[in-house]
Design goal:
Layout: E1 2-8, H1 18-28, E2 32-35, E3 44-48, E4 67-70, H2 76-86
Parallel strand pairs: 1-2, 1-3, 3-4
Length: about 90
């Protein structure tokens, strides 16, 4: 199992279903296990923002294999390819 810390924006003006994107990711990669944000350096960190403002604070969030900020469901393919290549 690989740990993934997931941070959502506040959701004040989402343009897509952020939770559906994360659920899809976890379904397609059953070896990913969501962990609390305060976990000491998870395998990967994912910041899911509902719009292009990407105002969610995430400077302190990092993962051993990196971090990705997603602001649109069209970026899912980039996320999918990154994780597939890293597993």
């Amino acid at each position: 199992m690989k740990s993934v810390a997931i941070k959502y924006c506040g959701g004040c003006n989402p343009f897509f279903d952020r939770e559906a994107l994360v659920n899809r990711l976890l379904k397609e990669f059953p070896d990913l296990a969501p962990v609390p944000l305060d976990t000491n350096e998870p395998w990967f960190a994912l910041v899911v923002c509902g719009c292009r403002r990407a105002c969610a604070e995430h400077k302190q969030l990092c993962g051993r294999e990196g971090k990705m900020v997603i602001c649109d469901d069209s970026e899912y393919k980039k996320l999918y390819e990154f994780i597939r290549g890293a597993l």
